[in-house]
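Researcher: Sequence recovery benchmark, item below. Answer with residues only.
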């Protein structure tokens, strides 16, 4: 089968690679933990494009948190699933993919995890939980697109603050909104949230087995601050991490396939996936 199909009891949509190169990707869309679906471009378009380039993509239809009071639901049915529902769904999707790797024509040592925005959080959090559980098969790579990784977000530096001020439509992820988003996701205060929910709180000692990571942030995006903080912790842990801000972008550019930057980021991901070695390190 070469067309996308539902699997794992409806938990995932599988995008089989047209000409498989052995790589696989468990992928999560964004949407502030409360919105989003498998048909949005950063889910469907990204998965289709990567499948056309050789990677089988397993896109996760994770359970959504409630829509925060005062947020525009735009007629959408509210979810009712705070943490750890979405994170547990990521782990279930990962386990299903590992169990079905042979049928999917995926090399388990070349299986990655990733996502966009809140989905990037879910991917990083799932990687940390797999490490904590000493899972036999863990991600060979993490692909994070403009992830949100901290509930209490540091202030942007002067250059980013000036860019946000000059581009008001991009300035939509201030600290109060981000904190409210996480409190809604957690169903309560963030103070004692586990690392699986707020991966950006991980210390270098927590990250010594985190997979090699490619992170592509929006250039004018306040969430970039949390991604860069996480990248700094990965470097301190001695982990391979490449992080960049895609030029000319604000948050969510993979949802806008008509923009050249979306294709650029997708090419970066496809090339990194294709470069995964056929044999994983002995620790895996």
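Model:
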């Amino acid at each position: 089968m070469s067309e996308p199909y539902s699997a794992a009891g409806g938990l995932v949509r599988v995008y089989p690679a047209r000409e498989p190169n052995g790589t696989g990707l468990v992928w999560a869309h964004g949407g502030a933990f409360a919105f989003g679906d498998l048909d949005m471009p950063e889910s469907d378009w990204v998965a289709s494009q990567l499948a056309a380039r050789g990677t089988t993509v397993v896109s996760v239809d994770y359970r959504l948190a409630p829509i925060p009071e005062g947020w525009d639901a735009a007629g959408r049915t509210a979810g009712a699933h705070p943490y750890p529902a979405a994170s547990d769904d990521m782990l279930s999707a990962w386990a299903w993919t590992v169990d079905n790797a042979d049928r999917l024509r995926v090399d388990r040592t070349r299986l990655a995890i990733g996502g966009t925005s809140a989905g990037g959080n879910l991917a990083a959090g799932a990687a940390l939980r797999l490490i904590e559980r000493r899972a036999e098969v863990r991600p060979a790579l993490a692909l994070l697109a403009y992830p949100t990784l901290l509930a209490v977000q540091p202030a942007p530096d002067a250059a980013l603050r000036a860019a946000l001020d000059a581009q008001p439509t991009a300035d939509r992820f201030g600290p109060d909104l981000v904190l409210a988003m996480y409190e809604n996701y957690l169903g309560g205060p963030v103070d004692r949230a586990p690392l699986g929910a707020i991966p950006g709180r991980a210390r270098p000692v927590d990250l010594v087995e985190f997979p090699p990571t490619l992170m592509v942030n929006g250039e004018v995006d306040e969430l970039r601050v949390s991604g860069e903080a996480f990248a700094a912790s990965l470097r301190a842990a001695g982990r391979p991490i490449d992080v960049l801000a895609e030029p000319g972008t604000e948050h969510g550019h993979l949802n806008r396939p008509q923009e050249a930057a979306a294709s650029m980021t997708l090419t970066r991901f496809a090339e990194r996936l294709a470069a995964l070695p056929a044999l994983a390190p002995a620790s895996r």
